């Protein structure tokens, strides 16, 4: 029996497992290992602080650069809920997928996104792999991914089937000082993507100090009453699809 395994990334742990459990194991890499597709235009965008991320997204909307369909990745379900409320308040056609949503609710949202009924989809790591969306032109990493493997899988939702795509990663002063960008900077440098001069001095081989989930300020600029209204609307929608 012959087996073929395919992945956008290949970690040392996965390769070690394959060598242990598969006979005559052979590993082939197309292009640069653990790198994004050449068709993805990758950008690191400095936003200063956490509040600057919302300003950046609203700036994209104002400039007409948030062209659907768009995927926005955040680091936790709580932040997904918070960002969802903010974008609903802004009048954006948006929905959200995270671990608290049932499979039926996730299927409904994915179907609506594929049909163009949802323009912006906010998600956590649960959607970074395994789903193929046609026509996604923009992926936004609202929060810096926890690893370079996660980064590659997230931005791999665009630039598919020969179509160009764009990926924007927001980063703050804390992301720089805590070393959360080092592996991503190294990846972009290897891929020949443009980078700010002050990031080029980071040592990719230096151990990253920050290994745990980053502590970030809540995403909160809208009136509390509107948040309550948004939660009630989501609960009613969930009840109708459960």
TrEMBL record:
<keyword id="KW-0547">Nucleotide-binding</keyword>
<dbReference type="InterPro" id="IPR001650">
    <property type="entry name" value="Helicase_C-like"/>
</dbReference>
<dbReference type="GO" id="GO:0003723">
    <property type="term" value="F:RNA binding"/>
</dbReference>
<dbReference type="InterPro" id="IPR050079">
    <property type="entry name" value="DEAD_box_RNA_helicase"/>
</dbReference>
<feature type="region of interest" description="Disordered">
    <location>
        <begin position="209"/>
        <end position="242"/>
    </location>
</feature>
<keyword id="KW-0378">Hydrolase</keyword>
<dbReference type="GO" id="GO:0005829">
    <property type="term" value="C:cytosol"/>
</dbReference>
<keyword id="KW-0694">RNA-binding</keyword>
<dbReference type="InterPro" id="IPR027417">
    <property type="entry name" value="P-loop_NTPase"/>
</dbReference>
<dbReference type="GO" id="GO:0005524">
    <property type="term" value="F:ATP binding"/>
</dbReference>
<dbReference type="GO" id="GO:0016787">
    <property type="term" value="F:hydrolase activity"/>
</dbReference>
<dbReference type="GO" id="GO:0003724">
    <property type="term" value="F:RNA helicase activity"/>
</dbReference>
<keyword id="KW-0067">ATP-binding</keyword>
<dbReference type="Pfam" id="PF00271">
    <property type="entry name" value="Helicase_C"/>
</dbReference>
<protein>
    <recommendedName>
        <fullName>RNA helicase</fullName>
        <ecNumber>3.6.4.13</ecNumber>
    </recommendedName>
</protein>
<feature type="domain" description="Helicase C-terminal">
    <location>
        <begin position="39"/>
        <end position="203"/>
    </location>
</feature>
<keyword id="KW-0347">Helicase</keyword>
């Amino acid at each position: 029996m012959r087996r073929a395994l395919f992945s956008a990334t290949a970690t040392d742990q996965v390769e070690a497992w394959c060598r242990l459990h598969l006979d005559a194991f052979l590993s082939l890499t197309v292009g640069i290992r653990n790198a994004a597709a050449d068709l993805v235009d990758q950008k690191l965008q400095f936003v200063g602080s956490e509040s600057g991320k919302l300003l950046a997204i609203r700036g994209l909307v104002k400039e007409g650069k948030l062209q659907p369909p768009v995927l926005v990745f955040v680091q936790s379900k709580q932040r997904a809920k918070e960002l969802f409320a903010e974008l609903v308040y802004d009048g954006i056609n948006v929905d959200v997928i995270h671990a608290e949503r049932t499979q039926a609710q996730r299927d409904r949202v994915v179907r609506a996104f594929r049909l163009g009924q949802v323009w912006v989809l906010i998600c956590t790591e649960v959607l970074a792999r395994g789903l193929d969306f046609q026509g996604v032109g923009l992926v936004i990493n609202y929060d810096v991914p926890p690893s370079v493997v996660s980064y590659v899988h997230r931005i791999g939702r665009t630039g598919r089937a020969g179509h160009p795509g764009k990926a924007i990663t927001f980063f703050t002063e804390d992301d720089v000082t805590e070393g959360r960008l080092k592996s991503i900077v190294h990846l972009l440098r290897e891929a020949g993507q443009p980078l700010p001069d002050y990031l080029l001095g980071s040592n990719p081989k230096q151990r990253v100090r920050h290994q745990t989930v980053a502590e970030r300020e809540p995403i909160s600029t809208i009136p509390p009453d509107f948040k309550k209204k948004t939660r009630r609307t989501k609960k009613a929608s969930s009840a109708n699809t459960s």
